[in-house]
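task queued by scheduler; priority normal; single chain, no ligands, no partner chains; default sampling; output format set to structure tokens
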Amino acid sequence: MSSAASPFGEAELTDPWVALEPGADPAEHARMLRRAHETFTEAGTVTRPVRSVVAESWRRSARAGVGPDGTANVELVDDDLGTYRAEHPLARVMPLFRELMGTFAADGKHLLAVCDANGRLLWVEGHPATRRDAGRMNFVPGARWAETAMGTNAPGTAVAVDRPVQVFAAEHFIRRVQPWTCAAAPVHDPRTGRVLGAVDITGGDGLAHPHSLGFVQAVARAAESQLALLTPARAAADMPELTALGRDEAQLLAGGRRIRLSRRHSEILVLLARHPEGLTGDELLCALYEDESVTPVTLRAELARLRRVLGPGLLASRPYRLTVPVECDVAVVERRLETGSVTAAATAYAGPLLPGSQAPAVVRLRHRLADALRAALIARRDPDLLADWAHAPWGEDDLDVWRALAAVRPTATVRAQLRSLEGELTAPADWSGAAARRTATPS
């Protein structure tokens, strides 16, 4: 969480996360921002007085192919929306959000909004007239307001940068959103630290005050504290959870402890979680080491160290196995893909499995999972899901995904990126360098 503004105090004059400095004229500042926005959309250059956080967001929005006249896509409606909201972790703290923000939103003709980690709005509540006005730009439950879909906006940008952020008037990338001002803060899972979504307050220029940013930040912190109380430390008998996607060192939640594992221990636990029946020493050697000269003694020493890290009773031998089932985020993505829940699978995919690992079995699993998910995204043809993948570090060179994205969102930016990638494939190149990487399977 940012310490940008106190919930009840003034922000520093140089704070880039606050939209207006104390004493600034909102009307004049909005006019200057509109001119700067036009300059950016026409020439691609950022001029004063645009804040650095907004300038960077504008550039990301443009790279994602967002146009200044775009409209939010409503992805979830009726029963699908109801089911998704009921199962979302933030449903548990909606009563807290309403208690802390509901009266403020209604009395001030503002809106309380909550989105998921993909910028999809789950709840939009507040003053009825303000809700009707917001509905004209599809600021409604079920609509996707991710930065890659709707450009710079407080809830979408807050989850993109994982910080509380305030967006004022023409700082919004899309023109029809520019009459609004909003402030949002990300909410994290208190056990894993992962972003669950964001809480947002949206309304008029009156929200362009340091207090509104501090307010949503304080509400987000209160929600995280409430989630921690509602999800107490798990008993040792409960299923441990292994998080290994998008990180070189996995994290294990077991017996109320959060254990950060070394790379080798991460590889071992990922493999044992996939093989509850256990693996022999020879099988683990082949799975972990490319070098056939590595001896069983080396592996036994590594497993002894891992047993000390995990504590007694979790790792058994002959064969090597975990004594209780372990839920791994890799299995979560696989199950969602098997049931056709592509959006849910993409949400759970935080990045390649242990991306720095060279263990043969981990490399195969990493490629297999990435290939299955990207194939499902290409088949689904959802422009926002494709854009999320294409603009992630692991997807920025993925030619097939860029081609699929260009087919469903043929903006000038997307077409230009596709031409660049295709040009690198056809140009003479050192195949040990960039061109070879362009054609490699994402890992």
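post-processing summary
- The mean pLDDT is 86.
- DSSP finds 18 helices and eleven strands in the chain.
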